[in-house]
Amino acid sequence: IGEPPPATTATATPAANAWGWNHEADVMIAFSVDLRVRDVATTYYQVNGGPTNTYQGNGVDLHDEGIFMIAYWSAFRVGAGSYIEPAKSLVVRRDRSPPVLRVANAAGVQVENGWWRSQVRVTYEATDALSGLDPLRGDLTDDVLNEGAGQIAAADAYDKAGNHASVEQTFDID
Question: Which of 48, 6, 63, 56 shows the shortest CA–CA distance to 30?
């Protein structure tokens, strides 16, 4: 062909975080082609191995949660010949759901009317089915509560996409 082939790039907006996840309302995929030739390219894409689509220049919106494999490539003509760029891929990970966080156990001696007669140790449980828990953020440390009305046990958790959940429970201890 004698001319350099097209170099198609894909950009996800907003960009993924350090864990490779996004939790924004929508993720827009835009394609651009550095032609370095005079003829106009046609860019194609597939999402998760689905049907081949022709890129119209207005972006591809990803609305759902999940892991998306975007395959993309361009084709162009030079004189009577043509060139099809080898497919490239972009992975987009989207998680909009917060972790599930709950008080797993409150250990102590509970008496009538919801009061406790001893120190209370509160433990928490958090899960996240899609992106997983972020081990660097949140506080799932056991709380140890002593005597007093309105003692608050609280925890929070983040998933790797940046979604947040919190839980709070009040204890009266005499």
Answer: 56
Joined tokens for residue 6:
């097209």
- pTM of the entire predicted model: 0.83
Cβ pair 157, 102 in contact under 8 A = no
Total count of residues recorded for the chain? 174
Going by C-alpha positions, the residue among 157, 155, 159 that lies closest to residue 167 is 155
Q: How many CB atoms lie within 10 A of CB 54?
A: 9
167 DSSP β-pair partners: 155
- The answer to whether residues 99 and 159 touch, using CB atoms and an 8 Å cutoff, is yes
Q: C-alpha angle with apex 64: 15 to 88, nearest 5 degrees?
A: 55
pLDDT in tens, 81-110: 788 889 999 999 999 999 999 999 999 999
Tens digits of per-residue pLDDT, 55-67? Answer: 998 889 999 999 9
DSSP state of 6: P
